[in-house]
Specification:
heterodimer; A: alpha+beta; Rossmann fold; OB fold (Dihydrolipoamide Acetyltransferase, E2P); 20 strands; B: alpha+beta; 2 domains; 6-stranded mixed β-sheet; 5-stranded antiparallel β-sheet; 18 strands
């Protein structure tokens, strides 16, 4: 039986629908990331499960029990809000012990549990400090320790790493997952950072305008995005506009801008259909100079921009038909490989291309994630 | 902030990075004239500006506590600069259009600031600074309140506009990748001091300090001993295995720290016995464009290894036995720091 289940849940604030008829199951011990842009309903989803807001319609089950009318403190969930909400006048250990004490633990028992949680989050040495004396990373760990000390089996984290330096965030996300898994917690972690979601989650739920766009393991969401939105929001993607010129039993020919012909493996298209072809940036191969011009899916162009990203180098290439594609290659062999203005060929292998119908409101609008 | 010396070139895009509390915001506020330095001089062009108020410094700025005019809509907020300077709006019209487009603010021009999301307010502030007509832009976390994805798109457009308009930009960010991808040069700060200044490639490939190696991008650190020099390389010993590097170090106490980025570690099934670290894969995480492995070696060292999606290494799974090679051209060596390794690279 799934531990948490939402069935056709809708939540409105005034005339804004934050969550639209959403159904979702979460298994015991699973680490789920809810990913989406600002205003997609991520925080509302957490608050619905925590019991801080009530659904307008639909049912929420925890452990098989309908909890729509169960108050937050009786749901066995620990909710860690975005801005931690630490008690400023209480010491670190008192902040953590607050939960156990208010649930009727003896003083001794409450402080013993709290100390264990502080040890786990490597804060035991700061037990007698006050929150404002801690760095951002420590405050984050304190909020987590407090959530853990509540003894709840379900951990709800709203942008738990959002307030931290980028470098620290990378370090802490591994720890976060480790602690959740070690304590066999079911975790729902809300974030707008796709890279973070990819690394920590067993399963990613992509949310947009209160609706689930796609859910699945990180590699599936990344490699087989169901829509242009998911492809764009989760990872770096190139989009090429075109029309279906021909369909045969193995695939289709796509007419790109200014007569370029592109072969794709998609057989489920209709001749004349307006489509968008997606290719991941790291799947764009760039080849020096001119050779084997008869090869399919090999397009001439020139390097227009080079950007160093650390482990990757990103090349922007303007194809001779006017389309632009970005290629990301490892710095190990991509550094200073091509200069700006250099003539190159771009190879787009059919197996790396995905085809989507042209969005009704236009591609530009579809890619606008805010 | 302690005894900072820094020159920013005309039309340069400079990024300042460093952990929270390192003084990066104080530095940019001193340049803006919001904070007065206790000692030292600040020049803009060849003019000493220590006593010049912010409005006379000819700068466009975006600060974290965004100050838009609450009674004006987005359009009027953005055009305020040219308006005050007495330009005709028609002169700036094409630029205004382009910037509104780039910032995706076209639909919001009639809205007042309190009707906007935090992200849209921030974009308005950036647009206003770009159009202000000032040659020098000071940007403190200009993309900080935007979603990660939006930030990744807008940073390139921001840089392009700064370059197209021939502006000089000083951009403070907590996001190393952001700095890396757009800066001509990066200043790394820590505890009120400049640790080092360099191009993104310099800081990433050959950081001068252990702190930078850790703060900019991911790195593996190993403690070892200096053995000697062999041909053009330095030979060191880590856990009983020999490693080589081009870095010229010869520490007095013989202790060294070796550093290598996860993506430069070569991972295979087998390898030449002398050069290789054998180990078992304990972790494998999909990162999107690449996969990150954690390998425990026979001498009980954990090494992170990153491989791109197109690579052969993707066939490796948790539990596989592998051979690691740490190529000498990518291995960096530093003297062991007096304060200890952990302290030297600590971000907090």
């Amino acid at each position: 039986m799934p531990l948490i289940e939402l069935v056709n849940v809708t939540k409105r604030y005034g005339n804004v629908t934050a969550i639209k008829n959403l159904s979702l199951k979460m298994n015991d011990g699973e680490y789920i990331c809810v990913l989406g842009p600002t205003g997609s309903g991520k925080t509302t989803l957490l608050k619905l499960i925590a019991g801080i807001v009530k659904p307008d319609s639909g049912e929420i089950y925890i452990d098989g029990r309908l909890v729509n009318d169960v108050p937050p403190q009786e749901r066995n969930v620990a909710y860690v809000p975005q801005y931690y909400a630490l008690f400023p006048h209480m010491s670190v250990i008192d902040n953590v012990a607050f939960g156990p004490l208010s649930r009727g633990f003896s003083r001794e028992e409450a402080y013993k549990v709290s100390m264990q949680m502080l040890e786990m989050t490597k804060l035991a040495w700061r037990a007698n400090s006050f929150p404002h004396e801690l760095s951002g990373g420590m405050q984050q760990r304190l909020a987590l320790a407090r959530g853990l000390a509540s003894g709840a089996k379900i951990l709800l984290l709203d942008e738990p790493l959002g307030a931290l330096d980028a470098r620290l965030r990378v370090e802490l996300r591994y720890k976060l997952r480790g602690i959740a898994k070690k304590n066999k917690l079911t975790t729902i972690h809300v974030t707008h950072d796709q890279e973070e979601a990819m690394v920590v989650a067993d399963r990613i739920v992509v949310l947009r305008n209160g609706e689930i766009q796609q859910e699945g393991p990180p590699s599936q969401v990344y490699n087989e995005p169901k829509s242009i939105f998911v492809a764009h929001f989760v990872g770096g993607a190139n989009f090429l506009e075109g029309f279906v010129a021909e369909v045969d039993q193995y695939g289709s020919w796509i007419q790109l801008r200014n007569g370029f012909l592109l072969r794709v493996n998609d057989v489920n298209r209709v001749v004349g259909e307006r489509i968008v072809v997606m290719v991941r940036e790291e799947k764009v191969e760039v080849i020096k100079g001119a050779r084997r011009r008869e090869e399919i899916n090999l397009f001439p162009g020139a390097v227009s921009e080079v950007s160093f990203l650390g482990d990757f180098v990103s090349y922007s290439i303007t194809l001779d038909n006017g389309d632009k594609v970005s290629s990301r290659m490892p710095s190990v062999f991509g550094l200073k490989r091509f200069g700006i203005g250099e003539r190159v060929y771009v190879r787009l292998k059919p197996e790396n291309l995905r085809v989507y119908p042209y969005p009704p409101q236009g591609l530009y609008k579809e890619l606008e994630v805010i | 902030m302690k005894n900072i010396n820094l020159q920013v070139e005309d039309r340069e895009y400079l990024c300042i990075i460093g952990p929270s509390g390192c003084g990066k915001t104080t530095l940019i506020k001193c340049i803006a004239g919001i904070i007065e330095p206790d000692e030292g001089e600040i020049y803009i062009g060849d003019k000493l500006v220590n006593n010049l108020p912010i409005e006379d410094r000819e700068i466009g700025y975006v600060f974290q506590e965004i100050a838009l005019f609450p009674h004006m809509n987005v359009y009027n907020n953005i055009c305020y600069g040219p308006f005050v300077k007495g330009w005709s709006i028609s002169k700036a019209e094409n630029l205004i259009k382009e910037i509104l487009n780039m910032m995706r603010l076209y639909d919001r021009v009639r809205d007042k600031p309190d009707a906007l999301s935090g992200g849209a307010r921030q974009k308005t502030a950036v647009a206003r600074a770009l159009i202000s007509g000032s040659k020098l832009l000071l940007l403190d976390e200009p993309l900080g309140s935007l979603d990660a994805k939006v930030r990744r798109v807008l940073r390139y457009e921001l840089k392009r506009l700064v370059k197209d308009l021939g502006l000089t930009a000083i951009h403070v960010t907590h996001d190393q990748e952001e700095a890396m991808s757009i800066a001509d040069r990066i200043v790394v700060m820590r505890a009120g001091e400049i640790v080092e200044v360099g191009t993104p490639i310099e800081l990433y490939m050959c950081p001068k300090s252990l702190f930078t190696a850790n703060f900019v991008g991911e790195a593996n650190f190993f403690i070892g001993d200096f053995v000697g020099e062999e041909d053009d390389y330095v030979k060191i010993d880590v856990g009983g295995k020999a490693l080589y590097s081009k870095c010229k170090v010869n520490p007095e106490d013989g202790k060294v720290v070796a550093v290598i980025r996860p993506e430069f570690v070569v991972m295979k099934r087998t390898g030449p016995p002398r050069e290789v670290w054998r180990g078992v894969i304990e972790g494998r995480v999909f990162l999107g464009g690449s996969v990150r492995f954690e390998v425990r070696t026979e001498n009980d060292i954990m090494i992170a290894v990153k491989k791109p999606l197109l690579s052969e290494a993707l066939r490796f799974e948790v539990g596989d036995h592998v051979a690691l090679i740490l190529p000498r051209e990518f291995l960096l060596v530093y003297p062991y720091p007096k304060e200890g390794l952990e302290k030297a690279i600590s971000i907090e």
